[in-house]
Amino acid sequence: MGLTSNSSGLNLLRESFNIDSEKANAVIALAGNPNTGKSTIFNNLTGLKQHTGNWPGKTVTQARGYYTHQGDEYTLVDLPGTYSLLANSSEEQVARDFICFAKPDATIVVVDATNLERNLNLVLQVAELTDNIILCLNLMDEANRKKIKIDIEGLEKDLQMPVIPTVARDGIGLDDLKDVITDIVTEKIKVEPTIIQYSPKLEAAISQIEPDLEYILQGRMNARWLALRLLEGDKTILESMEAYYSEEIIKDINAKLEGEVKASGVL
Ligand SMILES: Nc1nc2c(ncn2[C@@H]2O[C@H](COP(=O)(O)OP(=O)(O)OP(=O)(O)O)[C@@H](O)[C@H]2O)c(=O)[nH]1
Ligand SMILES: [Mg+2]
């Protein structure tokens, strides 16, 4: 069990994202490309019990709400629509930071079934950051209308994650979605998604720094994912870590890794 499993520490982090730690129920995030039906799902699940405001320090709107399923209450967070999690915009940074630091108990990536290839990019990025991922294949009515056939079982097998087809506008498939969320939160199912393997040179560089990161992070964040960000020279993740973690962790990362990241020769 890493430090993030320490509930008071995690609750403090979640509070910084306006998540009510008093409620202490499971937190579910809705991620996805713009216009894929996230808010439609959010509204359907939460009804009128929703709160809106801005994300801390950003003008990006935050919506969070609650729903009950099989007797348990869930907090649902509607993340801004993004094509990636590489923090190139405020929206991407909000989505990335929420998944990274508020550590939702499950993240649903809502994808447009008529545009699967483009949407899968974000699915693979989220899978690098968290194991607790569900792919929601929305707009299935549009896909059927366009005669697009999707091999759902094949997709589940290739991605090693639950895939739920939905027509959110008509409420179709949303009960299945809630069932899978519950299965993940109650650990009835354990998801271990397929992770992208990079070039041998990059994989060698990752293996060089990942163990140290693993040691420093103590389960707070996915070490392989952070290794990739450091290797590509992403400063925004260090800034966010400064905002959400203690100074010691940042100092350790800077001290232990500056040499190693450079020595890996990837930069
Ligand atoms: N045909 C069809 N339309 C849908 C479905 N789900 C949502 N929509 C429509 O798609 C449009 C976009 O839905 P939103 O829920 O606003 O999408 P979003 O992902 O929240 O969009 P952003 O917040 O801009 O990223 C709306 O007009 C919805 O009514 C669906 O399953 N089928
Ligand atoms: Mg929306």
From TrEMBL:
Pfam families: FeoB_Cyto, FeoB_N. GO terms for cellular component: plasma membrane. This is Small GTP-binding protein domain-containing protein. One of its GO terms (molecular function) is ferrous iron transmembrane transporter activity. Residues 25-187 form the FeoB-type G domain. SUPFAM superfamilies: P-loop containing nucleoside triphosphate hydrolases (SSF52540).
